[in-house]
Amino acid sequence: MDRCQERRDKLRHDLKKTGVDALLVTNFVNVTYLTGFTGDDSYLLVRHDGQVLLSDPRYTTQLGEECADLDLHIRRPGASMLQSVLKVLDSAGVHRLGIEADSMSVSLWDRIAGKLPNTELVPTSGMVEKLRLIKDRDEIAQIRKAIWQAEKAFGVLRAALRLEQTEKELADELEHQYRLFGAKDCGFPSIVAVGPRAALPHAAPTRKRVGEGEMLLVDWGANERLYKSDLTRVLAVGKISPKLRRVHGVVLDAQTQAIAAIRPGMPAQEVDAVARGIIADAGYGRNFGHGLGHGIGLEVHEGPRLAAKSPTILRPGMVVTVEPGIYLPGWGGVRIEDDVLVTRSGREVLTSVPRQLEHVIVN
Fold first, then answer.
1. Which helix (H) or strand (E) covers residue 348, if one does?
2. Computed from CA positions of residues 8, 12, 13, 18, in that sequence, does the dihedral angle turn out positive or negative?
């Protein structure tokens, strides 16, 4: 059976529990997950006995190539998505319509409700995202390839790195290298931060040069067709100072022990607690202000979350980042990030770039 068909069947099974006649999928990423269609501006109506993909003439040929088995509603030029939604809902005889509350705008909700007063709109949250938590073999293979592309790109960057290069030049070079190794593009805008700017977890690249600081933080990832990778390393510029060695050592220990705790049945919040406890015991608890990690897949940030209050229980097939960090304003920051697959017996670290400072010295 087609994997997208399997996903829709799982969704239908869950829909029965909600008591709705159909779900209108308005999150474009979720539409892609359920259909294989890689365009945007399209909705999917999933009924108990079928589905209809709502799109426009720009995608007619692409839809035929990517999801020829689906019923399509191609709206006429000038027709609005609302008109298409109303027409499809009317012909489908939907009385209780589930909607993606995390995606649908209040405006669209009001317009549908105003035009279809006899249709009850039922808000749902995370129904498709819950399915996306567990990756199948093809998804894992694409993530592995995205990691390979990212690591190859970083290897080229690292080999040619010069002290006079700027953060922006390095970010641009990474994107160029991704494509040379077959990636569609970057998985997200690269974070390249020198010296004190490494204390900004989401620093945007500037004209600051590598040689202006004692560390260089690089957070990067590739987009292989649809699936993403996400890694972070800190490079030492010149001699490794005692402070950098200490902070890096604490972060590396926190990450190593957190990864070792990953296994099926482990609460995500307990994995976060392992790393957070090590950093706090070292006196840097206030300097670790974000969750330990997140899922990666069609989006670079998706479920599950490894965080202090995450209710998720880890299951085989989940792919998460493990990225503890310590950020010291005025000095800099250290974050080490790897991508980890939860397996039936434990975990597999999918990334392989060296993490020890001695392997990442820039002269």
1. strand 347-349
2. positive
pLDDT (tens, 9 = 90+) of the chain, 363 residues, equals 589 999 999 999 999 999 999 999 999 999 999 999 999 899 999 999 999 999 999 999 999 999 988 999 999 888 899 999 999 998 888 999 999 999 999 999 999 999 989 899 999 999 999 999 999 999 999 999 999 999 999 999 999 999 999 999 999 999 999 999 999 999 999 999 999 999 999 999 999 999 999 999 999 999 998 999 999 999 999 889 999 999 999 999 999 999 999 999 999 999 999 999 999 999 999 999 999 999 999 999 999 999 999 999 999 999 999 999 999 999 999 999 999 999 999 999 999 999 988 887 777
Query: DSSP assignment, residue 55?
Result: E
* CATH class held by domain 3-132: alpha beta
Q: Which residue has the tokens 């077959």?
A: 182
CA–CA distance, 247 with 217 (Å, rounded to integer): 13
Residue 197 has phi, psi (to 5 degrees) of -70, -15
How far is it, in rounded angstroms, from Cα 143 to Cα 346? 18
The rounded distance, in Å, linking the Cα atoms of 237 and 265 is 41
Class assignment of domain 137-362?
alpha beta
Domain 137-362 in the same topology as domain 3-132: no
Report domain extents, the chain. 3-132, 137-362
Rounded (5°) CA angle 33-36-40: 80
